[in-house]
Amino acid sequence: MTRSEFIATATAAAQAASAVSGFPPGVTVAQAALESAWGQSQLARLAHNYFGIKAHGDLPWIELPTTEVQGGAAVKMRAYFARYESIEACFADRDRLLARLAVYAEARAAARDPEAFLRALARHWATDPDYAQKLLTLYREHGFDKLDQAFSTQRSALSH
């Protein structure tokens, strides 16, 4: 999958998930790009998991190596990750987790402000202390903020 193919596919999946959740789709695409190396990661290719979502519930899973930051140091380990049928299923599950888990209450409250949403999400999503800045840079540099501006305009039009 080329980068432009990834962006097109991820944008469609993010917009479908956002239509249900109300979360900014541009942040979703930026996060998927960062987490999955533009769809090229082993986890994305083998398990349609574009966010590094750990195994949970009754979902099938896959065990793969990962790096987590613990006590300021990068630690290599193996972890169980959720395995999805499709990119759409993964994006929908990511939004369900954000909508349901208590640690994302601040992100939910900031859903109408994509950059505040991104920062609140980053505080709990990843162990990398630079995650929010990496995500924000990618979000801005690749124009994913434009997706969120269009989404916000569309939501405003529907609510009037």
Beta strand %: 5-15%
User: Based on DSSP secondary structure assignment, what is the total number of beta strands?
Assistant: 2
Compute the gyration radius: what is it? 15 Å
Q: Total number of helical segments?
A: 8
The main β sheet shows up as:
2 strands, antiparallel
Give me the secondary-structure category: alpha+beta
Q: Within the CATH hierarchy, at the fold level, what is the topology of the domain at 3-41 and 86-152?
A: Lysozyme
Residue-averaged pLDDT: 95
Order of helices and strands: HHHEEHHHHH
Regions with little confidence, pLDDT below 50 for 5+ residues: none
Spatial separation of the terminal alpha carbons:
39 Å
Please state the second-level CATH architecture of the domain at 3-41 and 86-152.
Orthogonal Bundle
Shape: globular
CATH class of the domain at 3-41 and 86-152: Mainly Alpha
Strand order of the largest sheet: 1-2
Structure in words:
Strand 1 (61-70) and strand 2 (73-82) form a beta hairpin. Helix 1 (3-21) packs across helix 2, helix 2 (25-36) packs across helix 7 (131-141) and helix 2 (25-36) packs antiparallel against helix 8 (144-158). The chain has a two-stranded antiparallel sheet with strand order 1-2. It is globular. By secondary structure, it is an alpha+beta fold. The chain has helices at residues 3-21, 25-36, 42-47, 87-100, 105-109, 114-125, 131-141, 144-158, and strands spanning 61-70, 73-82. The chain has a domain at 3-41 and 86-152: Lysozyme, CATH 1.10.530.
